[in-house]
Amino acid sequence: MSITRQNLSAIIVSYKSEHVIENCINSIDKEIEIIVIDNSNDDLLKKKIESKYKNVKYILSKKNLGMGAANNLGIKKVNRDFALILNPDVTLESNSINEIFIASKEIDNFGIIAPLSNKDQYPNYILKKGHNFDPIKPFKVKSVDGYAMILNLKKLKKFDNFDFFDENFFLYLENEDLCKRLIEIDEDIYVIPKSKIDHLGGKAVDPKYRNEIEYLRNWHWMWSKFYFNKKHYGYAIAVLRIFKSLISAKIKFFYYLITLNTFKRKIYQMRLLGLINSMIGKNSYYRPKI
Question: pTM score, two decimals?
Fold first, then answer.
């Protein structure tokens, strides 16, 4: 089935994103339904966006759900066949959506298709073994970054007990986990090279919260890294794969403690805490203090 404006919805998960979210919305065709899941419960922003954009449904979550759970909430609100998952610091180039429509008519089977990052030095995909990058035609990949991807909801909802995003992940690797599970059930993932997007990278949250967000990111990066490996390869393999990161974080924590660099010390303290909590089986509970 091909993708059209009538059977596609966009989902944007927002958190303190007022400085970028309108750029994202403005880059999406006005005929396409947009569902914003706001994890920060910003009622003023909800009223502003809904009054300005008639194609936007703005949903305030009751708490900070994280990326995976918030995207799942958005998916539940979609009554169409396909869902475009976007971060608020992403903008689509003018022909991005049309190129997606064209490509979807040429691909017989897919679980996910994704646009291509316009930053060549920061590719938003990992190539599938035996496949190569093609600058013109859609090409198969092992996984795509979660900041821009289209899910084939009509197809994936037919699988019994299929979970879209694992809600144990609060931040990081929930997209990698989803892609890995799709590959395991022989679902194809494609990148559409003619469909380009611009991702600011780590700019989704207002920069005035920079320090707290850096602490959050480092805590959850390590928590998610261990959990992902444990989930897919077992505890022992997860320990082996994380060992270098554990030693590095310990050394850097003590170095910045001795050199009185408070910000850097806290970064590596957060890495250690995230990893330790994941190793002992605690959930991804840490939230920013903002």
Answer: 0.94
Of 168, 199, 230, which residue sits at a domain end? 199
Q: Is 232 within 8 Å of 216 (Cβ atoms)?
A: no
Look up residue 61 and give its two tokens.
């979550």
Q: Tell me, what CATH number does 65's domain have?
A: 3.90.550.10
Q: Are 73 and 36 contacting, i.e. CB atoms less than 8 angstroms apart?
A: no
Domain check: are 136 and 187 in the same one? yes
Is residue 130 very low, low, confident or very high in pLDDT (cuts 50, 70, 90)?
A: confident
**Pairwise CA distance, residues 149 & 289, whole Å:** 30
Task: Using alpha carbons, select from 199, 100, 187, 184 the residue that is nearest to residue 150.
Answer: 100
CA 269/CA 122 separation, integer angstroms: 28
Give me the sign of the Cα torsion angle 13, 24, 213, 259.
Answer: positive
Question: Which is higher by pLDDT, 114 or 120?
Answer: 114
